[in-house]
Amino acid sequence: MNRVDVDTAPPLVADLDGTLIRSDTLLECFWKGMGVAPVRTVATALRLFRRRAALKHALAEIARPEPGTIPLDEDVIALLASARQQGRKVHLVSGATRGLVEEIAGLYGPFDGIDGSDRDGNLTAHRKAARLTERFGHRGFDYVGDSVADIPVWQAARKGFVARPRPAFLRLLKLKGLEPAPVGAPWRTRDLLRALRPHQWLKNMLLFLPLIAAHRTDAAGISAVVLGIVAFSALASSIYIVNDLIDLDADRLHESKRNRPFASGRVPIKIGMAASLGLGLLGMALGAVLGGWMMLVLLVYLVSTLSYSMHLKRVRWVDVTMLAGLYTLRVVAGAVAGGVAASGWLFGFIFPVFLSLGCVKRLTELSRARGDGFLPGRRYQPRDRDDLLNVSIISGIASVTVFVAYSLSDTAASLYDPVRALWAVALLLSVWLVRMIWTGWKGQQDYDPIIFAITDRQGVVLVALSAALLLYSGT
Q: Which of 139, 245, 316, 375 gets the most CB atoms within 10 Å of its CB?
């Protein structure tokens, strides 16, 4: 590539948030803060919401992301490298706090100039345009940005570039007489859908258990439970997004979680926040249709999952207990939605099963982890494997014991004939639990035992045989 006249070539100025990096440092600080000091973070955000520069510095003082893990935009990096090869000067000028700009620039430079926001001024929009015009002159620089806030800067620049624009944004820019050159592809809707984890919605089929256990097949009960499943799925997806945003740093250090849509930068954080809010409101609205008790169950689920995401998942043993409790809460929701009085037998069986699977989840993570330290974002280390194995086995035995005791009860005798078919189900259940625990111990599962359970052929056969026996013996 031919070098240009260094004295006449205009410098190329790049933004940081959403441009050099596929993220937003303000939102990174906010969500990191929500994981370590949620009350202080929310209070700070509310107090300084209208003072953006002060807010950025205050949140950065509470918690800062790891600069070396934040995903880069390789297309923008290539554009900057090309400018350097031409002999042009390259500057990094951002609305992010100057300290963060300097840290990131130090990792991915060199840059000929660096600037960022201070406590008194937010270096964005017209303020940034004025700063660059004062330094380089009107039309004396090229600029690569990504958002509406960059419009005044593009208007002052000789040439513009826009990082990963969506078609609607390009149309807006054209209406304003701007046609910056696109750099990179925009985020995709299918990546956002992946962040909702629709495969996890299968867990909400647990809401059907109270109806199945009570041998209820009426249309009213089934339709109410289906609506409850949709409500739980929407609320669960809302919380999955929150969990992913809180775990950005930890996920980026994980073998497979680093590829999640927000950790990898494939979907902007602000899009995730909007989707989470919308799904949360949808879930609660559907709960309201089912009545006050369902609203209460959903509210308990919401508070519990947020508590888990923000703190309890980092408390050893409490985390797996919470996971089991959240699964059990789904059964409660099914009973409330379907108008069924679920028996203590059902809850006594379900809770230890999912406590066992929660331990299997941690066993799998430890078996597949590299090194001897703590799991990213968790308080387990390799020496905990034996304890997790013991708890998973004891919980599995407890669940099978409860099931066998149930088979000997008058309730079971009134619902199943011959009742001894339940003993065969108990045996199949025992084999299934042994397989789940063993594969977790050996690290042969993916990181979610529920997903493994529905994709494992041998396990599916065991569950299908159990279901067939229950249908055969049901009265």
A: 245
For 209-245, letters b (16+ CB in 10 Å) and e give bbbbbbebeeeebeebbebbbbbbbbbbbbbbbbbbb
Q: What is the pLDDT of residue 98?
A: 92
Does residue 443 sit in helix, strand or coil?
Answer: coil
Q: How confident is the model at residue 8 (pLDDT cuts 50, 70, 90)?
A: low
What is the average pLDDT across 173-178? 95
Residues in a beta bridge with 93:
115
Q: Are 338 and 225 in contact (CB under 8 A)?
A: yes
pLDDT of 5 strictly over 50: no
Cis peptide before 182, with omega less than 30 degrees from 0? no
Residue the block writes with tokens 């009426």: 218
**Average pLDDT for 27-39:** 94
Lowest mean pLDDT among 17-31, 140-154, 441-455: 441-455
Q: Are 85 and 12 in contact (CB under 8 A)?
A: no
Q: Name the amino acid, one letter, at 77.
A: I
Separation in Å, CA 268 to CA 1, 65, 164, 191, 262: 34, 16, 11, 10, 7
Helix (H, G, I), strand (E, B) or coil at 160: strand
Three-state secondary structure call for residue 39: helix
Peptide bond into 11 cis (omega under 30): no
CA distance 322 to 335: 20
The answer to whether the beta carbons of residues 44 and 127 sit under 8 Å apart is no
Q: Tokens 């599995």 belong to which residue?
A: 396
Tell me which residue of 305, 298, 290 sits closest to 244, measured CA to CA. 305
**Phi, psi (deg, nearest 5) at residue 91:** -120, 150
Q: Are 241 and 195 in contact (CB under 8 A)?
A: yes
**Tally of CA atoms within 13 A in the half-sphere of 121 that contains its CB:** 11
Residue 372: CA count within 13 A, CB half-sphere: 1
Cα–Cα nearest to 206, from 280, 319, 301: 301
The DSSP string of 96-152 is EEHHHHHHHHHHH---SEEEEEBTTB---HHHHHHHHHHHH-TT-SEEEE-SGGGHH
Q: Classify residue 21 by its DSSP letter.
A: B
Q: How far apart are CA 225 and CA 222, in angstroms?
A: 5
Task: Say what the pTM is.
Answer: 0.85
Give me the residue label for tokens 């006449």.
8
The Cα–Cα gap between 42 and 319 comes to 24
